[in-house]
């Protein structure tokens, strides 16, 4: 008789953002008059930039013409896109990454979930706590995380690296040696960053102990301060220990369009095996490539017009971030993030749990955020707001929060 993958049965509850969405829908159904503002999931609200729209239209027309029609995309992605990524995201910034080390995909969420497949189940993962839930859940589905303890909300075979106010929400090198280390900077959910020197310490450590760093740089476009690295390959030695994930969702508004890429340097080896070859094998077997039309839209992100328009889009969201940050501070909240990232991380007032504050905020301000505890036990008593709303909604939400009694 067929058996299920019982690792799925060990997973607690549903995916965090599904739970948040369900609670919002339930509230709205019970209070149809309420104008609920969603500052929860990091989903963009601004329309696609004109340069991207033009590229999409042009590519659609090409698909309707036998001369320019394209079928399956090349395994790693079209060269026109990989070349421009290698040039502008890496070579122009002094990072030694070539186009054939870039794998185009439908986004960083899928890549961050899938990358663990090329590693043995015997590997032990280390994650920041709080953390983007996909890293842990995907390893749990694969059977790498041991058993789940409902009381501590932790897995027995995961190394948690607490990110707290005491360490400025940046993980410290753990006592126990991990095999796979997930790092995300600028960080989701806390909005924290690390300096180049701090990141170099991680690279040196990974090379020393033979670990691999999975570096999620989905929010790099939001970096505003000079000493914050945009890529892990700015660090010496990263080619032998790091995989980098990038997304077009947040820098170009592609959450509904879907495009991302993963960099696997050819020098990166485990047990003498090049991980580039393993990921290429997986990519070729399980993935048919991001659509031609979307890859052309991705190329437009790097055009002079595209870059200019997207700079303004990022500035629009960062203006929201500042409004949230300043408004909450003024209202007496303890706040961080929002400077190099579109996320604001606040301490819940009066010792409320994260979910208590979620309910309170929904009830009293009709604003939806994301409970910090959903990202891990160290996120308890914290709460995340996103800057990806419209300016008008952001202002209204902050004004309602300021007016709310706490
Ligand atoms: C988030 O809200 O954390 C992000 O939207 C999740 C994602 O990008 O998948």
Could you explain how this protein is built, in words?
The structure is a single chain. The protein is of the alpha/beta class and 406 residues long. It has helices spanning 16-30, 50-63, 79-90, 108-114, 133-142, 196-209, 249-252, 275-286, 292-300, 304-330, 354-365, 391-403; strands at 37-38, 102-105, 125-129, 148-149, 154-155, 158-162, 180-184, 212-216, 242-247, 260-263, 269-270, 273-274, 335-337, 343-347, 367-368, 370-371, 382-386. The mean pLDDT is 97. The strands form 5 sheets. A 7-stranded mixed sheet has the order 2-10-9-8-7-3-6, with helices on both faces. It has a 4-stranded antiparallel sheet with strand order 13-14-17-16. It starts with 15 loop residues before the first helix and ends with a helix. Bound molecules: D-malate.
State the helicity in percent bands: 25-40%
Q: Numbering strands along the chain, what is their spatial order in the largest sheet?
A: 2-10-9-8-7-3-6
Bound molecules: D-malate
Number of helices: 12
Q: What's the multimeric state? A: single chain
CATH topology of the largest domain: Aspartate Aminotransferase, domain 2
Mean pLDDT: 97
- Major sheet characteristics: 7 strands, mixed
Which range does the strand content fall in?
15-25%
Specify the overall morphology.
globular
Please identify which CATH superfamily of the largest domain we are dealing with.
Type I PLP-dependent aspartate aminotransferase-like (Major domain)
Structural class call reads: alpha/beta
User: Which CATH architecture of the largest domain would you pick?
Assistant: 3-Layer(aba) Sandwich
- Would you count the extended β strands for me? 17
């Amino acid at each position: 008789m067929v058996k299920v993958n019982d690792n799925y049965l060990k997973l607690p509850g549903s995916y965090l953002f599904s739970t948040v969405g369900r609670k919002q829908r339930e509230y709205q159904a019970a209070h149809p008059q309420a104008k609920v503002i969603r500052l929860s999931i990091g989903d963009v609200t601004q329309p696609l930039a004109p340069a991207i729209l033009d590229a999409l239209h042009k590519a659609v027309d090409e698909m309707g013409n036998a001369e320019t029609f394209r079928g399956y995309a090349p395994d790693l992605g079209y060269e026109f896109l990989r070349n421009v990524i290698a040039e502008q995201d890496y070579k122009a910034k002094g990072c030694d990454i070539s186009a054939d080390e870039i794998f185009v995909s439908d986004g960083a969420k899928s890549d961050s979930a899938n990358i663990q497949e090329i590693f043995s189940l015997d590997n032990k993962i280390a994650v920041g706590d709080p953390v983007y839930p996909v890293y842990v859940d995907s390893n749990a589905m694969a059977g790498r995380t041991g058993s789940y303890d409902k009381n501590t909300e932790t897995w027995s075979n995961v190394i948690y690296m607490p990110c707290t106010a005491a360490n400025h929400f940046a993980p410290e090198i753990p006592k126990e040696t991990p095999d796979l280390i997930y790092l995300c900077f600028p960080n989701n959910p806390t909005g924290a960053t690390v300096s180049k020197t701090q990141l170099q310490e991680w690279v040196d450590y990974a090379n020393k102990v033979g670990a691999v760093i999975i570096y999620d740089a989905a929010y790099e476009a939001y970096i505003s301060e000079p000493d914050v690295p945009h890529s892990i390959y700015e660090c010496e030695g990263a080619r032998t220990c790091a995989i980098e994930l990038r997304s077009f969702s947040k820098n170009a508004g592609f959450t509904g369009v879907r495009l991302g890429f993963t960099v696997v340097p050819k020098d990166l080896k485990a047990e003498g095996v090049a991980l580039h070859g393993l990921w290429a094998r997986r990519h070729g077997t399980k993935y048919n490539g991001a659509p031609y039309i979307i890859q052309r839209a991705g190329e437009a992100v790097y055009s002079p017009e595209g870059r200019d328009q997207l700079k303004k889009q990022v500035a629009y969201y960062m203006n929201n971030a500042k409004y949230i940050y300043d408004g909450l501070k003024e209202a007496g909240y303890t706040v961080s993030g929002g400077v190099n990232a579109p996320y604001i991380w606040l301490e819940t007032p009066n010792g409320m749990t994260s979910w208590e504050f979620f309910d309170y905020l929904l009830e009293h301000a009709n604003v939806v955020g994301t409970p910090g505890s959903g990202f891990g036990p160290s996120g308890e008593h914290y709460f995340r707001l996103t800057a990806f709303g419209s300016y008008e909604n952001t202002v209204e939400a902050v004004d309602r929060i300021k007016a709310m009694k706490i």
